[in-house]
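Task 17 of the worksheet. Students: predict the tertiary structure of the chain below and write it out as structure tokens. Keep your answer in the requested format; marks are given for formatting as well as content.
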Amino acid sequence: MRVAAGFFAALFVVGALVQLNDPDPIPWIAGYAIASVLSLAAALGRPHRIANAVAAILFGIWFVSLAPSLIGAPQEAFTSFEMQAVFHEEPREAGGLALLSSWSAALAYWAGRRETSERQDSAWAGADAG
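Model answer:
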């Protein structure tokens, strides 16, 4: 999971950088930067359950606000790195938010599993000492 987190940390840095030419870059750069930092923390073995859960919820709410743009979105909106038409922007953004939300939820789950495992290990270590 740490390797995947490192991959996503790098991917989200690229995601933030490509937002520089977006009509509204600040919220998008911030979103991708937050996801990158959370992924980097996980890659370094320090995933944050609460921070990732909050990010997943916020990205999910943001996704819901753009989800209607996916209805009837042309395939061309997703098949090219260059935007072919202005009306491709929102479906592409919705796709990015789906990825951000899903990955943040996966990191929150992984962090929770690690915390549970660490507590169980501590409990076993304490039982062995007694």
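Marker's comment: Residues 48 and 109 are 10 Å apart (CA to CA). The chain has one domain: 2-125.
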